[in-house]
Amino acid sequence: MTAIDHAAWASYLLAAVDDRSAVTAITKQLDALSIDDAYAIQAALLELHLGRGDTVAGVKLGLTSAAKQEQMGVTEPVYGWVLGSSLIDGSGEVDLGELIHPRCEPEFVFVLGEDLAGPGVTGEDVLDATDCVTGGIEVIDSRYEAFSFTLPDVIADNTSAARVAIGSGAIGPRDADLTTLGCVFEVAGEVVATATGAALLGDPASCVAMLANHLGKHGQRLWAGWTILAGAPTDAKPLGAGTRARARYSHFDSVSIVGKG
Ligand code: OOG
Ligand code: MG
Fold this sequence. Notes:
Elements (H helix, E strand, L loop, with lengths): L5 H14 L15 H17 L4 E7 L3 H7 L5 E6 L9 E3 L7 E10 L10 H7 E11 L10 H6 L4 E6 L15 E6 L2 E7 L7 H14 L9 E3 L7 E2 L5 E6 L5 E6 L1
Parallel strand pairs: 1-9, 3-12
Antiparallel strand pairs: 1-2, 4-5, 4-9, 4-10, 5-6, 7-8, 7-11, 11-12
Helix pairs in contact: 1-2, 4-6
Bound molecules: 2-oxoadipic acid and magnesium ion.
2-oxoadipic acid (OOG) binds next to α3 and β5.
């Protein structure tokens, strides 16, 4: 078997971002793509972004809820990078001209006050290290045709990360039971989904622990100050021109974005 050229596949995916044009899934072009190779492509892609002057604002989990796993047909959580350039400003405006076929989804967001390094990190360790928890909306934009992929494809593609709005009104990590935090997701004024924190594999803090333990295996850690997306508790909805999406949370301020195109 020939070795996978991680840098070449990273360039392939970055070109899709630059061209705003979906590309054929990598696994449709190879006999096999291992999870380790997929994360190696993701790492090479991050290097390309950093080489252009981007920064790491944090890390994200994906596919941590049954709703998301069923929507995407992938049954394992994934981990990716949150780039500084992906943060949506207070206007909530998302320039659709920069994206391929964006979808939006609510997110539970952790801001770390201390570093967390796996292995052996637990949900309690996550609460100890967390400065605050808040709500957000992530805009995902798979670089693959028809938003269709297998587990290694979506890992290589930095878990479809594109943009994210981080909300205000954060609470302390032990100010509420994170499993019962509520989220009402509205698109174009209609309630399209509802969920609680427990939708994230039973407990959002345990999801962040999984992330810290995953990074530990790669000799990396979660750094104090980083923003961590624990994953969408509902399925994602298309973000079209003029579409306003709003996530209303039981314990944080509402977060609102609008597609501009
Ligand atoms: C993968 C990204 C998943 C989440 O919160 O579950 C994700 C995708 O659905 O394209 O960000
Ligand atoms: Mg997400």
